[in-house]
Amino acid sequence: MMYSREFTGINSFLVGMARLLLEEGVERSTRGYKCMELDQPIIIKITDPRARLITLKERKWNCVLPYAESLWIATGRNDMSMIGSYLKKMYDFSDDNISMRAAYGPRLRYFRGVANDYENKFNSKSSGESVITVDQFSFIEKIFQKDPFTRQAVISITDPAKDFFSEQNQLKKTKDFPCTNNLQFIKRKNSLDLVTHMRSNDLFWGASAVNIFNFTFIQEYFASILGLEVGNYYHIVNNLHYYEDFQDKVNLIANIADFKDEGYVYKRTVDSLNVFDKNLLILEELEEHWRTKKDTVLTHFEDEFFDDWAKVLYSFHNKTLPVTFSNPLLNELCK
Q1: Which among 34, 140, 153, 250 would be 20 to 30 A from 60, CA to CA?
Q2: What pTM does this model have?
């Protein structure tokens, strides 16, 4: 039997999943570690994807990392020098301490593959293959322009050519195999839903730390790009789990009785991927200056969403210079 649960936002999701895993979790050993996991897939519906900021003190959530990772993803990067400066443990998942091979950024913005159709001698090893680079963000924008109610707005993250075998046709040995398979954007009336499919998801390292934040963040800025409202978010996981090191925290969170989910609606000015990418380039350059040159200059964005995004990163690198956020929750989380 498949599990299904509905929540308003990330706080109720976290409490609800902690309770479910305590009730239904099955013990398993994997790669030398003991974990508790659901023995069936689960569909999670979040009705207010903008309620993505964890305010449960028991979680001790790092509010800066998901903003940094969202920038890292949206710009198509996989370098450890940037993301590792926000969380050194990220290096544990890098094969060479230089890049992260399964990083989502290059797969979203620079997915490389063979363009030839299968009827062109697909079973031969001819040298006439045409390799192209695909910006899947651009595809999403264009496919909705073609058909506002398309069912083809899918972003692929799993890449068999890179993930499955080495050049010697051996199973690839790597510390980092992508946990997310794909994303699908769907228009419902005047709202944009997002459905995420994951092969595996850790409740603390993945789902509540960055994953749901990152994907609902993408959902929100694509809703702006496409001129739609933010709809529902669906998080489908084949294996939801937590490791035994987090047992005390699971018990603590499962017993939280008083909590609420709070979303914030930004005033939107980004109405195309072109405008989004222009703002993104400015933000990327600012982040580089703050991180590497310790620059204290803060450039303000007219768009509130981008302005808060920038201020979170700025506040991490310039802790003595206070900022005021549009989203009031950030004024508490990013002190």
Answers
A1: 34
A2: 0.96
